[in-house]
Structures are given as C-alpha cells and as structure tokens.
Amino acid sequence: MSLTVSRCYCDSQVKANSDIKANPLFENRNPRALERMGIARKVQGWKFQAPRKDFYHKLVYDKIKMTAYVVHSSGKIVIEASTKEPAVLKYLYKHNDVSASWNLGQLLARRMLESGITEVFYDAENKVTEYEAEGSKPSEKIEAFFSALKDNAIKLSEPEPVKFETVPGINYEGYTRLGERKRYQEDYQKL
Amino acid sequence: MATSLLKNTTLVLKRFNFCDQVLLLQNVRTAYTIRHRGLPPELAKSWKQIKQELSFCKEKEVLAVNIGFPLQDGTKMTRTEMRKRKQEKEEHSKRNEAELERKARLQELVVPISVAQAEGFQGVGQRRIHRLADHYGLFRDLFGEAYFYPSLDLRVGYVDGADPEFIQPVYHGNQLPPAETQSAPEVVYKGDADKFYTLCMVAPDSHLEQNNKEYLHWMVANIPGTSVSEGQVLCDYMPVFPVHGTGNHRYAFVLYQHDNVIDLSAEKRHQERPNLSERTFETLEFYRRHQDAITPVGLCFFQAEWDPSVRKTFHSVL
C-alpha cells in the first residue's frame, strides 16, 4: 500500500498497521477507568471515624435545601441537582414538597446516567441526622427520592473491590503459634 | 563575632537567660558591650527571603486559561434580558396554581426533564458539562492548561443500523458498547448560520504506542451553519476499538467555531483503510496552530469498553 504524506502534519514516520507494536507500558489516562473496575485505591485507614471515607463517589441528599449531589472522595462535587434551579422550579408547585423530592430524584438519576456514574456509595449505616435515625417514622420525602433513584437503576453500592491473589509470608489465620517449637516451618516467609 | 578578636581579650562567660548559651569574646575593659547576633546586615537574609525559603508551596501554578466563550449564567444581564426575566416571573405567578397544587398533592406532578435540561443549558448545564469533563480529565489530556465552557448544546447520537428509530445518544461520560459505534453518528446543534464549524472525534486513551497522543476517529471541517453533511470530511469515520483488559476509554467530540473557512487540507487523512500512525493526533497542537481563528464551543463524550465487535474492527477495518 503506497502512502503519500507530503502535506500531512502527522508523524513523518508513517508505518503500516501491521508494523505497530503495542506499548508494553500502555497507559489508559482515563481517571475513572480504575474506579469502574474496582481496582482504584480507596481512602483507607479511617475505619473508626464517621462519616466514612472509603468510597469513590458518594451520594448526598439534603432534605432541607432540596439538593442532591454526587461527591468524589477528593472532595469535588461531580453531579449536582436542585429543585431551586429556575428551569426546574417553573414546573413545580413547591420546591420542597414530596413531589419535588421525587422529581429531584428523577433529575439526579437522569444526570447520573448521562455522566456514566451510576454506582455510588450511600452511607446508610452512619446516619447522623435525626430524621434518619432508627425507629423514627420513615419520611415520605426520603422514600420518594430513593424510589425515584431505584426506578432509574441507580445502584447505591460501589463495585466490589477486586481481590488479588495473596501469597502470605506467615499464615496468620491458622492456629496460634505460641506453643510451637523453635524450628523453621514451611509457611514462613520465603527469603 | 569572629572579627572582634583582639590581642588582650579574655573569654568572659556571663550568666544569660536559659535559652542563651552564647560565648562572647569581648574586651574586658568595657562594661557596656554591643551584642552582635547573627550575620552582619550585608550578609543577613530579610524576613521575606527566609519566608520564601521556608514555605513549602510549589512553584507558581500555571493559571488555567478559558479558551472558549465567556460563561453567560445570568449574573450580568442586559436591560432586555432583565425585562424578559421579569415577564417570565409574572407568567410564572399567573400559572394555574390550583392545578399544580392538586397534582403535587396527589403526587402526579412530573417535571419534563429533557425539556427542563435543555432550557437550563445556559448556566447550570454549561457548568455541569465543564465539571464532568474536568472530572474525566478531558481538559487536562486534550488541552493541557486550558479549558472551556461549552456554549452550544452539542447533541450526538448513534443510529442503530437495524432499527433506525433507536438512537444511542452521547452525553457526558455515558457508557456505550462499541458494537453501536460502527457508523458515523448524527450530529445536531443550534448554531449560527453565518459561522462555520469543525467537528473532531478524538480518542485520548486508545493510542497503542504513545501514551500522550490521541487517535483521530472523525473530522468534518468547515461546516456551514448547522448542516453537517455539507462539511468537508477530512478524516473518514473509524469505529471505536478499546483494547481488551484496559478498561473504559474516553471518546470526545469537540466542536470548534470560526468566522471564515479555514484551510485544513493539511489534516487530510487517507480515504482507504485507516492507518493508525497517520491518525495520530494531538488536540493541543491542532488548536495552537489555528488558535486565532477557532474557538471550542461544543463538547460531548462517552466511554466504551471492549466487546467482541472490537475484534472484528481490528481484523477487517484496520
């Protein structure tokens, strides 16, 4: 196949497709690629602190301000939805009633689907606010919001982290070794 | 001070406060001494210099540049725009409150989301697209330090060959299977009829040899107004090929606006089977060459992961 590239700005060394050798250090620069696969690092080490920090994207729903947003662990707000937006408010009766809450859920879900972030972390265990405390009457607004998200196939848990094969040096899960003889054992770390 | 060594000086250890444990060499005859601490004024550093050295901030960060049109989010309005907004507010208050209240009470009130989003493009929508593009690292990988707020609502959709009714739209980051990206998509936007536009489809993650380059999948130049079919196709559409095992690759459509026709014949790629090394592209370099004429106005992107159609692409198309 003859190639005439006299006027092209591209690389002067043009080679046939079959001569291309893939880069052994191929890098996918997409910062969200590893998160989707469940391989990206999460913020670890804050196990006994609340609110939890081990997530990629977190869902936050503010019942009083009537905004819902998705935050990344770095602190950046990625997707935001509010019933106070003029384009949305003009179709609503009130910005903070139950139907507005449902519509807010629909709006946020639509934006999440458009942006490709459909699996987010929602901290259902560490509920700090009183209206979400155990034993209290379920709020219609909250139920409406989450039912809207569920209808749009938004998952409130992130992808399972990939567990890589570990080759432990010492078998910590076995029986206690305190009474063992001082002799080299097979499951010690191989040097 | 080392310079004050004299022949007849004696070492005098005086009782100073706890922190001060300096040995002073001084002439014993004088009772009142001038204490010199630290370096002489010619050599000593000023507080500003010390602060600079001690501060741990990096070198001055390069300020990001907005290469698109300025954001119009309603904070600065002309008189006509203010009048229009006042009218809208009056209409809003006159609307059928009773009907809305009834619907809200019975929870039948449904906001038409696609309409609302299209209406809210100026301001809220622009910021949303900018934020997402930033989050996906598109500005960093395509333009480096520059960014832009999309001033046009660029709508791109892949039409399924089998079922022409169904369109798979491209928003800002949604996942598409490569099987649906085999043919060139439909592009719609509300543009100026007097201006010209150039559309580029670019893949920043897919380059097989160099990590910092992109592949040019599609390029249509000098589109008069909004009729994309009348533009010059400089680069034939090439289907998407995210390599297996490398995760999600991003594919971005960037629309540039320019007042006059630009000679982009140097960007022309061959019409036959696409040659990948020829399709190597760098958006920043392209923009720099034509930055006086073009402004980026539209942005759309999707993600794609490997699926069996990619294998077919490798065997037959490339």
TrEMBL record, chain A:
Q: Which domain of life is it from?
A: Eukaryota
Extract one GO molecular function annotation from the record: structural constituent of ribosome
Q: Does the keyword Ribosomal protein apply?
A: yes
Q: Per its UniProt record, what InterPro entries does this chain match?
A: Ribosomal_L18 (IPR057268), Ribosomal_uL18_bac/plant/anim (IPR005484), Ribosomal_uS11_sf (IPR036967)
Keywords attached to this entry: Mitochondrion, Ribonucleoprotein, Ribosomal protein
Is Transmembrane helix among this UniProt entry's keywords? no
Concerning Gene3D superfamilies, the annotation shows:
Ribosomal protein S11
Write out the annotated subcellular location: Mitochondrion
Q: Which GO terms describe its biological process?
A: translation
Any one GO CC term of this protein is: ribosome
The record's annotation in CDD domains points to: Ribosomal_L18_L5e
Family as reported in the entry's similarity comment: Belongs to the universal ribosomal protein uL18 family.
Give the protein's recorded name.
Large ribosomal subunit protein uL18m
Give the species: Dreissena polymorpha
Automatic annotation (TrEMBL), chain B:
Q: Does the keyword ATP-binding apply?
A: no
Q: What is its main location?
A: mitochondrion
CDD domains on file: PEBP_euk
Write out the GO cellular component annotations: mitochondrial inner membrane; mitochondrial large ribosomal subunit
Sorted UniProt keywords: Coiled coil, Mitochondrion, Ribonucleoprotein, Ribosomal protein, Transit peptide
Q: Where is this region: Disordered?
A: 76-98
| Superkingdom of the source species | Eukaryota
Annotated compartments: Mitochondrion
What PANTHER family does UniProt report for this protein, alphabetically?
LARGE RIBOSOMAL SUBUNIT PROTEIN ML38 (PTHR11362:SF133), PHOSPHATIDYLETHANOLAMINE-BINDING PROTEIN (PTHR11362)
Q: Which family does it belong to?
A: Belongs to the phosphatidylethanolamine-binding protein family. Mitochondrion-specific ribosomal protein mL38 subfamily.
Q: Which protein, by its recorded name, is this?
A: Large ribosomal subunit protein mL38
Source organism per entry reads: Dreissena polymorpha
Q: What is the lineage of its organism?
A: Eukaryota, Metazoa, Spiralia, Lophotrochozoa, Mollusca
